[in-house]
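hey so u asked for the seq, here:
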Amino acid sequence: MSKDIWVFGYGSLVWRPDFEFVEKRLAIINGWVRRFWQGSTDHRGVPGAPGRVVTLEADESGTCWGMAYRIAAHNTKPIMDALDYREKGGYSLESVELRFRTGDPAAAEGLVYIGTPNNPNYLGPESAERIAAQVVASTGPSGPNDEYVLRLAEALRRLGADDPHVFEIERFVREMSVTSK
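ran it, structure tokens below
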């Protein structure tokens, strides 16, 4: 690529980008909400016992907070190849409009990985309690699924981002973890 690009992270990329970037900024995308509707058989679960990770669901009145990372033009190819591999479990790359909380009031074009309903790992909606029970029972190559939920909730709080869905799942995960010990 001949220019820098922005990548928007709303799940593990919020706290663990794991790639070189020139700049990171708190950002929002409008028209989307974060949901634990994507199955993970390669990171937080295994085939036959998937964990649950976040994807985005279109919602006309929704807003999703996350981190936007600007990747230098000369690093775009290797970093995007690595991200394509990291997000291989049913995610596809989409273009979105980023709005930054501070600084430049203009929007920027960014890329985001979304697990749409037509991918083989998509699990879809479920009650918060059932999602949390699946999370507590799941572990994969990247670690326990509950760690993913807890770290995401913690990172969102540090950013000042309110996400009722994530925080409700977190509450159930904490309750279930206490009662299972």
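The beta strands are 5-9, 23-40, 51-71, 92-100, 108-114, 139-140, 143-144. The chain has one domain: 5-179.
lmk if thats what u needed
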